TrEMBL record, chains A, B:
InterPro entries: HTH_LacI, LacI/GalR-like_sensor, Lambda_DNA-bd_dom_sf, Peripla_BP_I. GO terms for molecular function: DNA-binding transcription factor activity; transcription cis-regulatory region binding. The keyword Transcription regulation applies. This is LacI family transcriptional regulator. Keywords: DNA-binding, Repressor, Transcription, Transcription regulation. Residues 2-56 form the HTH lacI-type domain.
Length: 334, 334
DNA sequence: GATCAGGGTGGAAACGTTTCCACATCGAGA
DNA sequence: TCTCGATGTGGAAACGTTTCCACCCTGATC
């Protein structure tokens, strides 16, 4: 591959001049610029990022550490962030923690040796986030205690309240919660907000109606299996993310329950698939576009040395048909 | 951040020795190794990849160019490939072409300046794939004419035949096809195989029953809109990927058609969501794990200078309930 | 006509590694 | 005792950039 040396030689100028001409980083006569550009084109020259990084101490690359790429919520976030970064000619190295703290550590080590300019992390609960000191860091979707990094997240309190209010309005009083892992802030916040909202309506759930999952589909199954065997059975189940909702849904189906009639199933987190389910699922939609853009912008600020703060993005209730009222016992029909 | 110089100083050895000790790349006494290791640990030393790459001409990074991360088929592939690479301490830079050729070009340019060790690409149809000469390259899911790069893909011929045979066996004879873009090899192969299979059964479809989409959800809507207005109406629609199937499904629903009763809708490409749809969708499942691993292994071979060849991964028909027989006219009940 | 400002240019250092080469040490074999 | 090979070590070059600095012009200002 051609180096800047080759380009300079072909253009008949020095390496220094070639560099300035290509980057516009210093004085260079229009003629020279043209000459160097042409030489670079002819040779198919592409700057060597490793060499540039070594010299400039920047990589024009950021790290994105997700907890699960296969969760559409996160893959959509990755999409938005990658798009925004590409517009700035910044590359994104996406890694996966698979909801595991050891993977998170490994990924962070790897990102550190890459000397990425900054990091957007969806942190694993229960782990201390070991990031090289001085490395710009933005937390996405979840917070971690004691970290000074800005946090970009949905308004979990609002979203939870919207859904609980909706359910109660429909007449539900026996509402079960499949919470996210309580080691994660989003899991905690959503559960707490749901409980507070329920409390406000005077319908505190039975303890056995609160089950902790891990944001993955399997745990939705397991939780539903436990929940649906209780007597009395709850009339509605609110799952803490889209994957667990899917788990709950298929477990309920397997038991022959008609969703939306025998029992309501709803989800925090919307999904493009929800409108097509049987029946279409009511959900609290997160504004993925805003979340991703805010995270990228926050990181960009940090990298540029500007201060940056937390962002809370509002949620929106999307009512579909997975919680019609027919399942509700008469006592509440008043 | 500590450099190897600092480590060497702290361990009281030369830089050269420190490097050898840390990498095991040359002779070093056990005592020295221990000493250097400890010094590195104390300092929290992480090798600077840019510097290493500059010297070694390797980056231990590969590029993965996808056509659409938000398509679960591809995000699952990304997951598998990233996992496999991580086990080798290889990083993956994932980029998105968004099914657009200009984005593909931009991404390839960017990947070239990163000097990735190799490239796994899901190529856009209709574009010539400009990859730096000598750069190891593996094509995934789709082939491109004239490229000598190994191709890893599902057995489109088998999958198409499995599905057509199944439909015909159920009594369908009026089968419509929402094909993938004919600029992509997978789109072409699947359509050709479907037509051949239909021919074999003596039921060549009417021209208006063959519609070309672009693998995205919207085009499924559009195709279905056209298809469902024809008279006679086809009794079954076979979509070329999971996203277009979703589009067809929701369009059909919007028109009040009962899927699996009034009309059958099936898909090339399975999805974790398909079992939950209304009704659960019959699909040709691709073996994503095998595809991803094969692609990574092929690239690894190429990077190591070993030859590598095409891989065709078998598909599997997953029968659910989106194509029961009630929609089929009597003429075929014999 | 001398001075000055500033644009354009080239030489060379520096970034942090790895690795080639030369050298020293040591034990074993002649 | 001398040589030899193996082993461990350090110096220094090289990878491809960017950027500091010094230099040479040119044209304008005094």
């Amino acid at each position: 591959m051609a180096t800047i040396r080759d380009v300079a030689a072909r253009a008949g100028v020095s390496v220094a001049t070639a560099s300035r001409a290509l980057n516009g980083s210093g004085p260079a006569s229009p003629g020279t610029v043209e000459l160097v550009r042409r030489a670079a084109d002819d040779l198919g020259y592409r700057v060597n990022k490793a060499a540039r990084s070594l010299r400039t101490q920047r990589t024009d690359t950021i790290g994105l550490l997700l907890s699960d790429v296969r969760n559409p919520f996160f893959s959509d976030l990755a999409y938005v962030i990658e798009q925004a970064a590409a517009a700035d000619h910044v590359s994104v190295i996406t890694m996966n923690a698979d909801e595991r703290t050891d993977r998170q550590e490994a990924a962070l080590r790897s990102l550190a040796t890459q000397r990425v300019d900054g990091l957007i992390v969806v942190p694993q609960g229960g782990a201390t986030l070991e990031v090289p000191t001085g490395m710009p860091l933005v937390l996405l979707d979840r917070r971690v205690d004691g970290s000074p990094a800005p946090v970009i997240q949905s308004d979990n309190e609002l979203g939870s309240r919207q859904m609980i209010d909706h359910l109660v309005e429909l007449g539900h009083r026996d509402i079960a919660l499949v919470a996210g892992p309580q080691s994660s802030s989003s899991g905690r916040e959503r559960l707490a907000a749901c409980l507070a909202a329920l409390e406000g309506h005077g319908c505190t759930p039975r303890p056995e109606w609160i089950v902790e999952g891990d944001f993955q589909e399997r745990s939705g199954h397991v939780a539903a299996a436990a929940l649906l065997d209780t007597t009395p059975r709850p009339t509605a189940v609110f799952a803490g993310d889209n994957l667990m909702a899917v788990g709950v849904l298929s477990e309920a189906r397997k038991r022959g329950l008609r969703i939306g009639e025998d029992i309501a199933v709803v989800s925090f987190d919307d999904s493009r698939w929800f409108p097509l389910l049987d029946p279409p699922m009511t959900a609290v939609a997160q504004d993925v576009e805003s979340l991703g853009l805010a995270a990228y912008r926050a990181l960009k600020d940090l990298v540029a040395g500007r201060p940056s703060g937390d962002v809370v993005v509002p949620t929106r209730l999307v009512v579909r048909r997975s919680c019609t009222t027919s399942s509700i016992p008469a006592r509440r029909s008043a």
